[in-house]
Amino acid sequence: MIHSLFLINNAGDLFLEKHWKSVISRSVCDYFFEAREKAVEPDNVPPVIRTPHHYLINIYREKIFFVSVIQTEVPPLFVIEFLHRVAETFQDYFGECSESTIKDNVVIVYELLEEMLDNGFPLATESNILKELIRPPTILRSMVNTITGSSNVGETLPTGQLSTIPWRRAGVKYTNNEAYFDVVEEIDAILDKSGTTVFAEIQGVIDACVKLSGMPDLTLSFMNPRLLDDVSFHPCVRYKRWESERVISFVPPDGNFQLMSYHISAQNLVAIPVYVKQNISFFETGSSGRLDITVGPKQTMGKTVEGLVVTVHMPKVVLSANLNATQGTYNYDPVTKILVWDIGKLNPQKLPNLKGSLSLQSGAPKPEENPSLNIDLKIQQLAISGLKVNRLDMYGEKYKPFKGVKYVTKAGKFQVRT
Amino acid sequence: MLNHRFLCRNEDLKEMLESNKESLKLEAMKRIVGLIAKGKNASELFPAVVKNVASKNIELKKLVYVYLVRYAEEQQDLALLSISTFQRALKDPNQLIRASALRVLSSIRVPIIVPIMMLAIKEAATDLSPYVRKTAAHAIQKLYSLDPDQKEHLIEVIEKLLKDKSTLVAGSVVMAFEEVCPDRIDLIHKNYRKLCNLLVDVEEWGQVVIIHMLTRYARTQFVSPWREDAMFDENNEKAFYDSEEERKVEQTKPYIMDPDHRLLLRNTKPLLQSRNTAVVMAVSQLYWHLAPKHELSIITKSLVRLLRSHREVQYVVLQNIATMSIQRKGMFEPFMKSFYVRSTDATHIKTLKLEILTNLANEANISTILREFQTYVKSQDKAFAAATIQAIGRCATNISEVTDTCLNGLVLLLSNRDETVVAESVVVIKKLLQTQPSQHSDIIKHMAKLFDNITVPMARASILWLMGEYCEHVPKIAPDVLRKMAKTFTNEEDIVKLQIVNLAAKLYLTNSKQTKLLTQYILNLGKYDQNYDIRDRTRFIRQLIVPNEKSGALSKYARRILMAPKPAPVLQSAFKDRDRFQLGTLSHTLNSQASGYLELSDWPAVAPDQSVRNVEVVEPKFYSDSEEEEEEEEEGSSSEGSSSSSSEESVSESESEENSDDSNKSSSSQSEKSSSESDSEKKKKTLKNKKLQQQKPDILIITYLPPQIMQKTLLLIIMTKYILIHIVLSISTQFFVNCMCSLLHLCVFLACQFDVVSWHVHVSLQASSPVFVPETSHELLHRMTGKGLSAQYRFTRQPCIYGNSMVSLQLTLSNSSDQALENIHISEKSSTGQNIHRFNAIGERHTTKEDEFSVSIQPAVGELLLPITMSEADFTKEQGNTNTSYWHADETPTNRPIHFSVCISRFAGKTVSSGSLVLVSVALKDPDAVITINTEKTVIGSMLLRQFKTALTNSCP
């Protein structure tokens, strides 16, 4: 399936290659570079590229292109999903997935890639298992390793791999048994000029951090499971129980993992937490424009809106911005043409406002379209859909775990057209 | 110089490798791996590295493996040195070492070791560890790519591994099957059902591969489920899917889906909830290619969900949706808004979304879509704006109601400042005008006015073509345009020049008075053009239109040739022809056949033999079934005491536990389970039933069950449960049998057969064997009254080996006193003409004291009915035969809202003693149920009826 993998940075340097079958010359990447050049923006590179003898399937993540070489028919999503899994594993191991961390940990990276694929077919992709095979680097361990010459390769067989519960390692032991769940909801919305909702939906995930000894069997139930329109689960969740009883029953992996993600579609009413009054105009003469943006709370369910940021991708002709913000700070980058207004906490008594003039390139025609605004925000202790966890029960183990649930609402792809 | 330094460094690595210190060696290997990762050549270190292959240090060893696999091909002779190490490791007691030895051995691409590899694979395929077997499956593919001549032997191994029941192996071996022998579909038959059942528990990557393989398999083995739908299908699929064939068979008989086909669809459905996008896509394509059209809608939501994922995932999913949305608009129409474009999307994502929106456009939603398109046209991304204009053009041609609106909108765009937008509008307008030119001379005039400002060649050419084609509608302007063009001819692009020549010719034919000179001038210019296409065209046109001696008959027809009415272009989706590829494949994404693409065959007209898939298997337990069993199990065994516990016992025990649990829940949450859910509910229950059915043959009869567990499984709960659910859900008689059996506790027993402790059942798999055997026992004798002896009985529903007219009964005797009980037997003085097959007394010796207890077996109803198989037609016939049969009918109010999908449930059986027929049918007419019982035996009939009535009425909450 996956023949080879090349890692290429944003500047076009190929800094790592790995082959699972016979070696393929790195010159195959020339086809990729060609496409990369044509696309201008890295985001516009087509994910699947055909070359005379191979197919290149690539993903772009954290400023790195993961380019895999394929020789025969394979579902493209299979490869794409796997490449993302590789990137996530790196992130999990090294804290971030960047060129420098990969270069610093090249041996571990190589060992990981070796374990993740056998003959191009995924072998072990569960982080619990990989961590048993290859221990993630820590400062302490790398020091001990250099002194004692001991290794960071696990000596035992990962027990999970052989059981019917491949995601959990055996013999987990904690003195403090705890299980935390974060319900994170993101609002995806498009609002039009007048503020009416063109499209809105809620994407939610439940992230879990479970540190429980032994083989706990957990059951998580909701107050209002019917709210969930469409769900997808970590492989540990038993589909049948969900289908019949609408509870989430699972033997969790050890540590952090994403238990489920769900979708509450546009059909249900999605509360929009803020409104934006904006007026951006460019003048026909004088190469200037005016900008006036006010943000106010709408449906916040009595919670405070925090981390409010407004981002505007200005048209190419905008040279600079001379603005005045009543709250927070603004920054206009004349190279990327991005205006960022970092507001912070939204005060309902005194609405934040950004006002001022824009200067345009002289002589250039005025831009036809006003730029749309992207809003970022965060509301603590609230799941905007109203989803509530009812209870968490544990079977199979005797101790009493410490349990906790946290709710956060964020703006996802929240766009205001102007 | 540089080369020299490089050599030096390698020298020092060599030294490090040859030192005695483990840490130095490790350090050296790490640096070498670093070199390999950078793509630098480190092959000359081979001899120094390969020495360390037998190192004790695991990390060092692993790094040596990495090196070996990378360079073995280049240094074949030296690589052979390491082989013996691997051969030794293949015999290691640790499965991890065995597996990794096989992995590396099979990755060394040295043809000489093919026989060794073959041997190792064969051995590993029978290894006890499923992990090693999985590695063997991977090794098969490696060996095959190294030496395709081994195919036959490898197929044997694949065949063996396909039988493997481990979820770990399944994905890998199917992968090997797909690479080595995808055409050997016969290997799958026997494993088909197993694979379907395993699927949920296989790791996600294996799921993708298995699903794709099963899709191909199903297309060769089952008949098309689309026949019936084709009638009310919106998009006239019939014409597309091989119509002749279908029309022939259409009249024959109603389509019944093969249960195996259904099994596949049912078992893949939960995987739509997978977090792995590839799995979701695989299931979606399976449904697209295999499911009846009306079941397709369930995949929509999941596909739309994937759009939240990474950019690359979006790209592939959108492509597939684009193909689907051409054929079936309805599927995605409710989710139209999910395809709205954001300004932050990548260009290829935007274009795909646009494509889908255009496919989804219909009379009802066109105004919304056009409004959305208006925003896009203004986009800063000009390529995208141009694509939007094309999309508008497509909407305009497809939906005649909006053609005029679109056209007006496009004309407005002609005054747009951006050139690409204007050009694209011109091109699209040209296409639109062709459909109805006469009414639009205004637009043509308007375009002629704009002509001077337009510089994009394609747009200029389009306007010129329009002028020429419809010059009769704009008789005044066309010659003037030609005059201007004559001036600029030499500076135009080729494509424009061709159109100028074209325009000149057309004007010459229609209006030669005004344009004769101009035309000749242009033809002269063209004659000496640098481009030979233009020279050719000019020469041809001149001969055609200017009459002279040499020109033959052709010039007479010049007008008819040039001014012939031309068909309007059809604007259609670029995804129109993509459906020739299986969805979700690389070939589909590329829109061209990738190497190794396996064609999806057409449905067979007649289904091949179904029985090839028949196997008798004992399904192992999987994670997804286990629910809360673990603890139940524990409880059971702890109370059971020491030696008597066996795994079979606890499994079947917990199963009945589970059932009763379920029933509790289902009755208590009745109100919650609205009709909307009944569908999924039904599926689940059916599944459960299947499971019971499958497990029945290998259930060992349980003896000595601890009493507290027994009491827990209250019969009543089981009763209500099965009535509640199974009557409601029964589709086939099989299920109805099921509920009958659990419901009815008729009296009279005719024969009892006892054995000492355990009684081995002789299983016979008749079609009409009971589907469900309750595990509950009833008390016959309490230990207090029995002076230490307690007895429990249970109907096993197995054919009695002592006589055809006898009912089997299992009696469990236990001694709870502290002394031995002896000579337990059934006394002769049994009651009223019943025939009991007695068992031999237990422990027949020194009888010191005799106690006698008279017991009676509780009226246990339907236990003396034997279910029989009967076709529906026969059933109705027999039922209609009222002369000979006793007939009961009653209306029972069932005061709960039941939403029945099936209205009539039937059960056919005969009494065990006399073999007289008993027919029961329950027709549900909301909120009443009509129960009809036909039998000669009045007593049984009335009892049955009473039981039914109570059961149905009691089941209400």
UniProtKB/TrEMBL annotation, chain A:
Any one GO biological process:
vesicle-mediated transport
Keywords carried by this UniProt record: Cytoplasmic vesicle, Golgi apparatus, Membrane, Protein transport, Transport
The record ties this protein, via SUPFAM superfamilies, to: Second domain of Mu2 adaptin subunit (ap50) of ap2 adaptor (SSF49447), SNARE-like (SSF64356)
Database matches in InterPro entries: Adaptor_comp_med_subunit, AP2_Mu_C_sf, AP_mu_sigma_su, Clathrin_mu, Clathrin_mu_CS, Longin-like_dom_sf, MHD
Q: Which CDD domains match?
A: AP3_Mu_N (cd14837)
Any Pfam family matching the protein: Clat_adaptor_s
Q: Which domain of life is it from?
A: Eukaryota
Among the entry's GO cellular component annotations, what is one? cytoplasmic vesicle membrane
Location in the cell: Golgi apparatus; Cytoplasmic vesicle membrane
Q: Which residue intervals define the domain MHD in the entry?
A: 176-417
Q: Indicate how the chain sits in the lipid bilayer.
A: Peripheral membrane protein
Task: Show the PROSITE patterns listed in the entry.
Answer: CLAT_ADAPTOR_M_1, MHD
Asked if the Swiss-Prot or TrEMBL record annotates the protein with the keyword Protein transport, the reply is yes
For this protein, the record's PANTHER family field holds: AP COMPLEX SUBUNIT MU (PTHR10529)
Please explain the role this protein plays, according to its UniProt record: Part of the AP-3 complex, an adaptor-related complex which is not clathrin-associated. The complex is associated with the Golgi region as well as more peripheral structures. It facilitates the budding of vesicles from the Golgi membrane and may be directly involved in trafficking to lysosomes.
Protein family membership: Belongs to the adaptor complexes medium subunit family.
- Which named protein is this? AP-3 complex subunit mu-1
What is the species listed in this Swiss-Prot or TrEMBL entry? Cyprinus carpio carpio
TrEMBL record, chain B:
Where is this chain compositionally biased, Low complexity type? 638-649
UniProt superkingdom: Eukaryota
The keyword Transport is assigned to this record = yes
- Which residue intervals are annotated with compositional bias (Acidic residues) in the record? 625-637, 650-661
Gene3D superfamilies under this entry?
Leucine-rich Repeat Variant (1.25.10.10)
Q: Where found, per UniProt?
A: Cytoplasmic vesicle, Clathrin-coated vesicle membrane; Golgi apparatus
Q: Domain AP-3 complex subunit beta C-terminal: where?
A: 733-858
Family, as annotated: Belongs to the adaptor complexes large subunit family.
What is the name of the protein in this document? AP-3 complex subunit beta
- Biological source species: Cyprinus carpio carpio
